[in-house]
Write a structure and sequence with these properties.
Blueprint (H helix, E strand, L loop, with lengths): L2 H5 L8 E6 L7 E7 L6 E6 L7 H21 L23 E2 L4 E6 L12 H17 L17 H14 L8 H12 L1 H4 L1 H7 L6 E3 L8 E3 L5 E4 L6 E3 L2 H11 L17 H14 L5 H5 L1 H21 L12 H18 L1 H10 L1
Antiparallel strand pairs: 1-2, 2-3, 3-5, 4-5, 6-9, 7-8
The chain binds 2-acetamido-2-deoxy-1-O-phosphono-alpha-D-glucopyranose and magnesium ion.
C-alpha cells in the first residue's frame, strides 16, 4: 500500500497534495501530509510495532491523555486549544485512531500550524519548557483512565543494566574484542549500583511513580514563533514512571553543549545555565513534587545520560538492532558522547544541589 492509500483510510479534511518525510526520530517513521487550501496539514506516522508491540494500548494511552488535557484546557477557558494538545484522526469506518494491514501500523494527527521545534534552546526557552513539562505532569495527576506501560519497564535502570550484561554475554557480532568497548563497560559498571537507587526507593515505598512523558527531549516540544510553548508531542512513551524521567531526559538533550551523536566528545558538557533555567521553570510547574523527588533532580540529570549510554552501548554490542543508525559505529559514537555527558553531570551535582537550595 502506498502512503496515499493509507492516508485514505482516515477521516481527514481536504485534498492531499504532498506527503514527505518529517523529523528525526530514531524509532518511528514520520511524514508530513500537505493538503490543499485551508484544510489542516497532518502528520502521518508508521508506528514501529517491533518496539511498540501493543499498539492498541499505545493509542488508548494517547487518547486518554490528550482527551484529559483537552478537557482541562477547555475548563480553564483556554483559547487556541487545537494548537495546545494533539488530535488524532479516527478511521473512516471505525472510531479507532490507528490503521493496520496486520503487518504495519499507522496513525495520523493534525499538524499544529505555525509551530517550531528545536534541537537546542536558550536558557529562556528552557525555562518555558520546564514550566510546561511540569504543568503537563501536574495536569495528568488526576487522570482516571488507567495508563499502561507501552514498553514494559522502559526507564527501569536495573533492567537496562541487565540488558547490557546480556548483550556483553552474547557478544552477538564480536564487538567485545575491542579494548575501547571493554574500557567503556568497566567505567559504566562502576556506577551501576548508584544509578539504580530509584528502583530501590520505589520498592521501599519512598518514591512514587506518576504519569510521565518519558521522551522529553527538547525536540518533542512545539514552540510558536515568539518562543511560547504550544504543546508536547511524541506521546508514545507516556506511562507511569519517576519524575526523574522527564526532568533527566530534557537535561540530557537540551543541556548538552552538542547533539547526542556528536563525535567531538571533548566538547561535551552539561550546561549549568540550561540546568538552572529548566529547573526553575519545572519547579514552578510541577507543584506536586515530594522532597525526595526534588532533592534528587541532580541525580536525574546524571541518570539519564547514564541510562542512554547503557542503551546505546547495549545496542552497539547487539549489532545495532534497535536504534536507526546512519553509519556502522553510530551507536558507539553516541555511547562515547553520553558517557562524557554523564561524567560532566556527575561532577556538577554539588553545584546543582546548591542551585536548587537557593530557589
Ligand atoms: C528514541 O525515536 P525517538 O528519537 O523519539 C527512544 C528514546 C531515546 C531516544 C534517543 C521508544 O526516541 O527513549 O531517548 O531515541 N525511544 C524509544 O535519541 O526507545
Ligand atoms: Mg520518541
Amino acid at each position: 500500500m502506498t502512503t496515499n492509500e493509507i492516508v485514505g483510510q482516515f477521516r481527514l479534511e481536504g485534498k492531499v497534495t504532498e506527503i514527505r518525510p518529517l523529523g528525526s526520530g530514531l524509532i518511528n517513521d514520520t511524514y508530513l501530509v500537505k493538503t490543499e487550501g485551508d484544510a489542516p496539514d497532518y502528520v502521518l506516522q508508521r508506528i514501529n510495532n517491533a518496539i511498540f508491540t501493543d499498539v492498541d494500548l499505545l493509542q488508548h494511552n494517547i487518547e486518554a491523555v490528550t482527551g484529559h488535557i483537552r478537557r482541562k484546557l477547555e475548563a480553564a477557558g483556554e483559547k487556541d486549544i487545537d494548537r495546545k494538545v494533539l488530535r488524532f484522526l479516527p478511521l473512516k469506518d471505525s472510531p479507532k485512531t490507528y490503521w493496520t494491514d496486520g503487518q504495519t501500523y499507522w496513525r495520523i494527527s493534525v499538524f499544529i500550524k505555525d509551530s517550531f521545534t528545536y534541537d537546542s534552546v536558550t536558557p529562556e526557552y528552557s525555562e518555558f519548557a520546564g514550566e510546561n513539562f511540569g504543568r503537563f505532569e501536574a495536569m495528568l495527576a488526576d487522570i482516571k483512565e488507567p495508563i499502561g506501560e507501552t514498553i514494559p519497564s522502559f526507564h527501569n535502570m536495573e533492567l537496562r543494566a541487565r540488558q547490557l550484561r546480556e548483550a556483553v554475554q552474547a557478544d552477538a557480532v564480536g564487538r567485545m574484542a575491542n579494548p575501547e568497548v571493554q574500557a567503556i563497560l568497566k567505567d559504566l559498571l562502576q556506577y551501576e549500583d548508584e544509578m539504580c537507587k530509584a528502583e530501590r526507593w520505589y520498592r521501599e515505598g519512598k518514591l512514587p511513580k506518576r504519569i510521565c512523558h518519558c521522551d522529553t527531549k527538547v525536540s518533542n516540544m512545539l514552540f510558536d514563533k515568539d518562543g511560547n510553548v504550544l504543546c508536547v508531542i511524541d506521546l508514545d512513551t507516556l506511562m507511569p514512571s519517576f519524575v526523574f524521567s522527564d526532568f533527566g531526559d530534557f537535561m540530557r538533550t537540551a543541556a548538552n553543549t552538542v547533539p547526542e551523536d556528536d563525535p567531538a566528545v571533548e566538547k561535551v558538557q552539561l550546561r549549568m545555565d540550561i540546568f538552572e533555567a529548566f529547573t526553575k521553570g519545572y519547579l514552578e510547574g510541577a507543584t506536586f513534587l515530594t522532597p525526595i523527588e526534588k532533592e534528587n533532580l541532580p541525580y536525574a540529570a546524571c541518570l539519564f545520560p547514564y541510562m542512554q549510554a547503557v542503551r546505546f552501548f547495549a545496542d552497539y554490542i547487539n549489532g545495532d538492532t534497535y536504534y536507526k543508525i546512519q553509519y556502522p559505529d553510530h551507536n558507539l559514537v553516541r555511547t562515547r558522547n553520553q558517557v562524557a555527558l554523564f561524567h560532566s553531570a556527575y561532577a556538577l551535582q554539588g553545584q546543582m544541589k546548591a542551585y536548587i537550595d537557593s530557589l
